[in-house]
Amino acid sequence: MQHVTNTKELFATAQTKPAQAPLPEIQWHRTKSDPTRAWLRLNEATIPATAPVRQPVDADTQAALDLLRSRLLRQMRQTGIRKLALTSPTHGCGTTTLATRLALGLASQIDLKVMLLDLNLRKPELSNQFAITGITARQTALTGTRREFDSSAVRVGHNLALSLFTQPEPRAAEALGTLRARALINQLEREFEPDLMLFDLPPTLACDDMVAAADLYDAALLVARADHSTSDQIDRAERLISEQKPCLGVVVNACRFGVAYDRHH
Ligand SMILES: Nc1ncnc2c1ncn2[C@@H]1O[C@H](COP(=O)(O)OP(=O)(O)OP(=O)(O)O)[C@@H](O)[C@H]1O
Ligand SMILES: [Mg+2]
Questions:
Q1: Which fold, 60-263?
Q2: Contact by Cβ (8 Å): 213, 133
Q3: 28 or 170: which leads in pLDDT
Q4: What is the pLDDT of residues 228-264, one digit of tens each?
Q5: How many CA atoms lie within 13 A of 193 on its CB side?
């Protein structure tokens, strides 16, 4: 043991201590993202005129859809929400139909970059709605790698990206809740810098997918069906969503005046 008798000696001892080896410098290899190139790299597709999503709707419904789009856009800009999950209380309320129409409506604003991902892994429907053929991905990109996203994704025009697949994934909640899924969504955000990401999800009361996926989205929109959903179902679904993330509102589909939107906040 070393004995130090006065402060001068203490100082000298401290001075003669062997210098510690410097920590190796951390090298950050951060490639600068180039969203324009990322968008251009996606396979381009056109939506056939016969696709369900291309079928015309009556003027009232179109006006209601346009209004919903613009209100949502403003709300999302005000709140900074970019990733929106669409869900319903129970099956068949029109979530997928609304998700597709909303994505097209948003993408018709040319300064927006919009991504729509099929996260209804149990019953993927987006590829049918858009009737886009030649998609090589059978399984969702969430269960695979970043490269698999490319094979599941198509670009419609310059600013709408769709992630589609055809094979159901029975272990949906498990896939949606993985860190890998979260990492993939983060990576897509970094690479493509979308203004909005829409996720088509299964009904909230039918399975645990909305809860399992809660780390993937910022907020949710609940799609109820006027001729089908009960107020109890809407309440329960809303409560379950709000336990995870903000519920922006309830869209009442198939009501007499097209599509109604009740905003909460
Ligand atoms: N406003 C509407 N008027 C008439 N039919 C509609 C309307 N909205 C949706 N549909 C029809 O209802 C059916 C279910 O719609 P959709 O697949 O969009 O519901 P979903 O909530 O996504 O269902 P799921 O829970 O199975 O995912 C489809 O056949 C669709 O064409
Ligand atoms: Mg659906």
A1: Rossmann fold (3.40.50)
A2: no
A3: 170
A4: 999 999 999 999 999 999 999 999 998 765 566 666 6
A5: 8
